[in-house]
Every structure is written in structure tokens, then in C-alpha cells.
Design a protein that fits this description.
The protein is built from 29 helices and 22 strands. It has about 750 residues and is of the alpha+beta class. It is globular.
């Protein structure tokens, strides 16, 4: 049964009534939502202000703590709540969201702080609140059901289930009247028609069996041709005016993984159409309101096709993925704008999201002082007061700040009056020419503007900070920063990444195994596949950025742990949860990319890199097992597996195995390393050692490698067959560029 037909069948099976189903509000699978009621106050209450305190007061998640003073008798997911549902014979109301989710705040304010809603939930249901970022295993299971039965999904996600975890109804954001109606109907049905709920169990369980197992494994691996075909397929949907894709709507998310696939395909085929689509997208994102032109950093998505009006939350994983694709594009095109954006994102992360102890925080909220975007918007009068008349006129022209404002669709959540989101309507060189300026003069003024405007902005109420530290998201950020240290030749980024990696290894590893989350000194929850895969990826990039062997050793050790507890010996690929983890409704191996890459896709790349670095052919075989496990799914919808296809591209290429021998601090060594990272060469591994260390080093690529006539030498190999060593950048470039 195809996914589409399966979803239609489920929609019919689970309908309680046409009226019942019509009560919900369906949203897109990336979290976009319809207009809702105004939010006129913040969501965090102090204990002194609160009239109620529930069990969530003991949670570590900032999202759960936001609900700790609701009159709803909330539970965290766990035995206590599930046992209560069984003992009292009540259905479960499961509410899933995250701290930076604007519409989660809206639903809390209008429903979960409301006495009538709380009364219904407390009397007739066991209410469980889940932070999707702490428990992605729970989130993905019930999101699959929500999407299957409603045709959409997003957060807040609202799911009703039995005490055994089997869901029977789902939706996303519900306005208060609709929610009350649903709660009453479910309660009545529960009392009068219990058999009706039980009758659906078989179909639900069959759905989850199909969803978690996917299509049968293929006999062979995914073909290289699939990479090029998928890249051309996704490129057809790109907006050739503003870049990106909107999937038939207006919201646009930074398509980082899609663009990585397109750049890889361009490198192989020379198809200029692919490169052009990426450049248009990166140019417009860099100039749009989705980018914070004062403080740096990228917002989650744009609510319009021109990238002007963002959803203002800043997620750590977006900073990682977006900065990484700007690095790739910079290596390929040498466009200075791309290097600037990547470095500006890095500086933002280090300044705002890195904890004093090294780990990276998760999110900056979209809201501040109870209003969406209030921290980021400006009026002409404010700019004049800060910069003075003459400079303000130029600033307003450059960033499109006007007395009438440029943000008209505020969805009722922004401050009243003219509102301006900073964006750059005209590229700097063209703007400078139009205003009789040299571009260097304009850049100097922009720097001064930023400093003055940021000084004033810092006095505003900051958006809320989700200060939990997630292992997987830290891995993504470590990888991009470490990569940036080499590409941009800036050791500060490697130093920041190393501090974060040290934090994870010290604070989020117990008995050799990774934990998921840490906040206020409390580390908890077993790590998931994505935590291991993303962090191993970060460690491998950090090894390349520093050539400190301890990062490679840590990656290898965690890789073995991951294989031991997560590998599926029968069907190939990795499960999302460990063999000894809490048993939920199903144990998935979902290979599709979402807002973040699939753990299986990233881990396949890790295995291929480690296979070369450590000469472990069994790791390459496991990567092939991942390809076979998902080959049939990829054949059906290749565009849903961009990250996996990037790994397929690596697998089929003649990977450049580069060994550099020489004093790390010597100029002749540095220039060889610089030559490697001055070009877009995604399919490579790089090792280094001083000559005295190379002689005794156990890394296969370093065995027998020596300097040449006292000069640093580079060895370029493929399948361990090495060309003659070279000592000059020109000779190394020739070997690297030869295909």
C-alpha cells in the first residue's frame, strides 16, 4: 500500500464523526500555522504570580517549565502518568511542543491557562506534556500518526491515546472552543462506546508496523545516477526570482540539505542550472529579513516568498546547517558574501548561544515581552534618534525602513504602528554606486551602524532563551564550526567547537554512552541515533580542524557503542533508539530528512569516513547496509532523502585521501593545508602528523609518510594508492583537481 493510500485509509478508520474531525485545525508539516488570537502577555510566570503549580515544576525542560503554573494537572511522560491512566481508566491527552514555538505559547495562553479547559482535562483525562526536543522518539511516532490521519502536522501537536500508547485522534493547534468541544466528545465516546476505540487498535498497529519498517531492503546499493536525478528534480521547484521553495504555500525554510545535494551534483555534472538556483537562494536569504542583519544568525523560516518576514525563532540546528552550506558555496564560488554570512552566524552562536561551560544552548524564542518579533523591528524615528538624520537616511534606504513600515501582515502579534524588518533590497555594490559611495565606505558605515543599533537593541527585552544543551544539535554546530575553522582559516571557530565537544564528552556521557540533554547541571535521557551520528560527525570535523588525535579516538569509540546498541542486524541500518531503551509503541528507523538530517544518513557518512581513516572495511559494509535498507524508499521519492544521497555521492566517488606531513606551525605545512580547504572537495579525508609522529602513527594513511628534502609534503591517495608526494601548493592543487 502506498503512503498516500495508507493515509487515506487511516483517515477513514479513525474518524469519530465528521463534526469531530472538523473541529481541528490542520497545519503544514514544518510547523506553519493559520492566524490565531493575539497574545497579550508573556508565558512565563513566577511562582509568586502563579495561582497553580503542577508536577512540571520539577522538569529540566524550559518548555515544560513554561507550563508548570498551568491549572492543568500536567505529567511528564513516564510510568507515573501511564499507570494513572490505566488505574483510573482514562484516555491520555498528549501535548507536544517546544519552547520557541509561538503557537504553543498561544495555545497555552488561551487554553491551558483557562479554568474550563483545565477542569475538563483534569476530570476526564491524564494530561502529558512533552518537549519534542528532549523526546524526539515520542514526537516522531505521534507525528507520523498525526500526519497520516489529518494530512498535515506541526506543533503544538495534540494527540489522544489509550493507556497502552495507541493513539485514536490527533491534531495540532486547536482554538479554545474547538478544544473544549473535542474534549467533551471524546469523554462521552469513552464512556459510551469503548468498543469503538478498541476496534481501531489493529489498524493503528498495522500502520505503525508499516511506517517503522518501510519497504523491504534492496539487493543493491543506491546508484550514483539517483543523486543527479534527485538534484535536477528538486531544482525544478526552486523559485528562480527569490530562491528556495515554498511547496505551494508562502512559507520558505532554508533548504540547506537540498542545496548541498545540488552543489554535489553540480560538481560532478557541471549543470549550471543547479549552481544558479543555489546562488539565487543564498543571495536572497543573506539580504532578507530571515537573516538578522544586526546581531547575526538565521531565523527558522520566512512567512513570505521574498524571505522578508521571518518566524523569528533562532534554532541552533539552523545556525549549523545554514552556515555549513554557505561555506560550501564559498569554497565553490569564492563569493565573499558567503564567507561573511557563515562567519557572522558563527560569531552570533559563540556570543549568544555558547554557555560559559562550552555547550551550545538550543534556541532563542520568536517572542519577547509577549510579542512576536518585537526585539528585531524598528521605526524611522528610532533610527534617527540612534544614528542622527544624515546617517539614518542612508541606513533606512539600505535596510528598507520607512514611515509606513514593511511588515503589514503581523498576524496580530507584533506591536501596533509602522513596523520595519531590516532587509537589504539592493546588493551593497549596486546600492553604493547609486548613492555615490565606494563599497568599502559603505561597509565601514554598516559596521558603525550595527554597533550603535545593537547597543540600543540590547536594552530591549530579549527573546526567551531555551538553555538546555542537546548532544545532537551540539554535534551539528561543532561540525560546521570546525569546518569553518579550516575554510575561513580562523582558529577561533575550532576553539569554540572544541569547548563544546569537551562539554559533551564530560557532561553528557555516562558509562561510555551518550545522554540526550543537559540543563542546570542535570544530564538525563539516553541518547538517540541522531545524538551519536551528529556528534561523531562533529568530532570527525574537529579532528580535521585541529589534527588532535583525541577527537578521532572519541569518534571511533562512540561509533562502536552506536553499532552495539542501535544496529539492526536483520534489516540493516540503525534504529532511532537503543536496544535497551524504553519500549514505545514502535521502534523506528525513519530515514527521511526533516528540519534536521536523518541520523542514518549522517551515520552512513561517518562510517565511510571512518572506514578510510581506520582501514575498517566492515564500516563500509555497514554503510552499504544502510543504502540497501532504504534504496526502495529512495527510489519512490528521492527528494525526501537529500542527506542520504549526499552520502551516496561520497560512496561512489574516488574519495581523496590526503596525508600531510610536516611541522603543524610551519608555513610550508600551513600552505598545503590551506590549499586543500580552498576548494570545494566534499569527498575527502585529511590526516596530518609531524614527521617524527607519522613514523609511529597507527593511522593507515600516515604509515611510511615522510617529508621531502626537509619540506612539508602532501600525499594524495585513492584506495590507499598514493601519488608521488608534493611540496608546493600548485602541485597539490593539480592532484586534488584531477578527476
Amino acid at each position: 500500500m502506498s503512503p498516500k493510500r495508507r493515509f487515506v485509509a487511516l483517515n477513514v478508520i479513525f474518524a469519530l464523526s465528521s463534526t469531530f474531525l472538523a473541529s481541528g485545525v490542520t497545519i503544514g508539516d514544518k510547523g506553519e500555522l493559520p492566524a490565531g488570537p493575539p497574545q497579550d502577555e508573556g508565558n512565563m510566570k513566577t511562582a509568586k504570580e502563579a495561582q497553580h503549580t503542577n508536577r512540571l515544576i520539577h522538569a529540566t525542560s524550559p518548555y515544560l517549565l513554561q507550563h508548570a503554573h498551568n491549572p492543568v494537572d500536567w505529567y511528564e511522560w513516564g510510568d507515573e502518568a501511564l499507570s494513572k491512566a490505566r488505574k483510573e481508566d482514562k484516555p491520555i491527552f498528549l501535548s507536544i511542543g517546544y519552547s520557541a514555538c509561538h503557537w504553543c505559547h498561544v495555545m497555552e495562553h488561551e487554553s491551558f491557562e483557562d479554568a474550563e479547559v483545565a477542569g475538563l482535562l483534569n476530570e476526564h483525562f491524564v494530561s502529558i506534556k512533552v518537549d519534542r526536543e528532549e523526546r524526539p522518539d515520542i514526537d516522531e511516532i505521534y507525528m507520523a500518526y498525526t500526519q497520516a490521519t489529518t494530512g498535515g502536522g506541526g506543533w503544538p501537536m495534540s494527540v489522544w491515546l489509550k493507556a497502552d500508547g495507541v493513539p485514536f485522534y490527533a491534531g495540532t493547534y486547536f482554538p479554545k472552543p474547538a478544544l473544549i468541544n473535542i474534549l467533551k466528545q471524546i469523554s462521552n465516546e469513552w464512556q459510551s462506546n469503548r468498543e469503538g476505540f478498541n476496534e481501531r487498535d489493529g489498524a493503528v498497529r498495522r500502520f505503525f508496523d508499516q511506517w517503522s519498517s518501510g519497504l523491504p531492503p534492496a539487493d543493491g546499493v543506491i546508484l550514483q545516477e539517483t543523486v543527479e536525478e534527485a538534484a535536477k528534480q528538486v531544482a525544478r521547484y526552486f523559485d528562480r526570482t527569490h530562491g528556495g521553495t515554498s511547496a505551494g504555500g508562502t512559507n520558505k525554510f532554508p533548504p540547506s540539505m537540498t542545496m548541498e545535494l545540488m552543489l554535489r551534483a553540480y560538481r560532478r555534472t557541471g549543470n549550471e542550472d543547479l549552481l544558479e538556483a543555489v546562488r539565487i537562494t543564498l543571495d536572497h536569504m543573506a539580504r532578507g529579513g530571515i537573516y538578522d542583519h544586526l546581531g547575526g544568525g538565521i531565523c527558522r523560516y520566512s512567512t513570505d516568498i521574498e524571505w522578508l518576514v521571518p518566524h523569528f525563532e533562532k534554532m541552533l540546528y539552523d545556525q549549523a546547517l545554514v552556515s555549513s552550506i554557505y561555506l560550501d558555496a564559498y569554497q565553490l564560488t569564492r563569493e565573499p558574501l558567503y564567507a561573511y554570512v557563515a562567519s557572522d552566524i558563527f560569531n552570533y552562536v559563540m556570543n549568544d548561544l555558547q554557555s560559559p561551560r562550552g555547550g551550545y544552548y538550543s534556541t532563542r524564542d520568536a517572542d519577547s515581552d509577549g510579542l512576536e518579533g518585537a526585539y528585531y523591528i524598528w521605526t524611522v524615528e528610532e533610527v534617527v534618534e540612534i544614528l542622527g538624520e544624515a546617517e539614518a537616511e542612508l541606513f533606512c534606504a539600505y535596510y528598507d525602513v520607512s514611515k509606513t513600515g514593511n511588515w503589514f501582515e503581523s498576524r496580530g502579534h507584533a506591536p501596533a504602528g509602522p513596523k520595519n524588518i531590516l532587509h537589504i533590497a539592493k546588493p551593497p555594490d549596486l546600492f553604493a554606486k547609486a548613492h555615490g559611495l565606494h563599497v568599502d565606505d559603505l561597509n565601514g558605515r554598516i559596521k558603525q551602524w550595527r554597533e550603535k543599533m545593537l547597543t540600543v537593541r540590547a536594552k530591549r527585552v530579549e527573546p526567551g532563551l531555551d538553555d538546555k544543551i542537546l548532544t545532537g544539535w551540539n554535534g551539528l554546530m561543532i561540525a560546521s564550526l570546525a569546518k569553518g575553522a579550516r575554510v575561513l582559516d580562523d582558529p577561533r571557530y575550532a576553539e569554540s567547537a572544541a569547548r563544546a565537544a569537551d562539554f559533551v564528552l564530560k557532561e553528557l556521557r555516562r558509562d561510555g554512552r551518550l545522554l540526550r540533554t543537559q540543563r542546570n547541571g542535570q544530564s538525563r535521557l539516553p541518547g538517540y541515533l541522531s545524538d551519536y551520528a551528529f556528534f561523531i560527525d562533529g568530532l570527525l570535523y574537529l579532528y580535521e580542524a585541529t589534527f588532535d588525535r583525541r577527537w578521532l579516538d572519541a569518534a571511533a569509540e562512540l561509533n562502536e557503542t552506536l553499532i552495539r546498541y542501535y544496529w539492526d542486524e536483520k534489516g540493516g541500518a540503525f534504529f532511532f533508539t537503543a536496544a535497551d531503551a524504553e519500549q514505545l509503541l514502535t521502534r523506528s528507523k525513519n530515514p527521511r530528512d526533516g528540519a534536521i538530517p536523518s541520523g542514518n544518513s549522517v551515520q552512513a557518512m561517518n562510517l565511510l569516513r571512518l572506514a578510510i581513516l581506520l582501514d575498517r572495511k566492515d564500516y563500509r559494509q555497514k554503510a552499504e547496509g544502510i543504502f540497501r535498507a532504504f534504496a526502495a524508499d529512495v527510489e519512490q521519492s528521492p527528494a525526501a532523502f537529500e542527506k542520504l544521497l549526499c552520502t551516496v555521492d561520497y560512496y561512489h566517488d574516488q574519495v581523496k585521501e590526503i596525508a600531510i606531513v610536516g611541522d603543524r606551525e610551519a608555513d610550508d605545512t600551513k600552505v598545503l593545508i590551506r590549499t586543500v580547504y580552498d576548494r570545494f572537495l566534499p569527498n575527502k579525508v585529511v590526516v596530518h602528523a609531524a614527521e617524527k609522529d607519522a613514523k609511529s602513527n597507527d593511522l593507515p594513511l600516515l604509515k611510511g609518510k615522510v617529508t621531502v628534502d626537509g619540506k612539508a609534503a602532501a600525499y594524495v591517495c585513492e584506495n590507499y594508492a598514493c601519488k608521488l608526494p608534493v611540496t608546493t601548493p600548485a602541485a597539490l592543487a593539480e592532484q586534488l583537481d584531477h578527476r
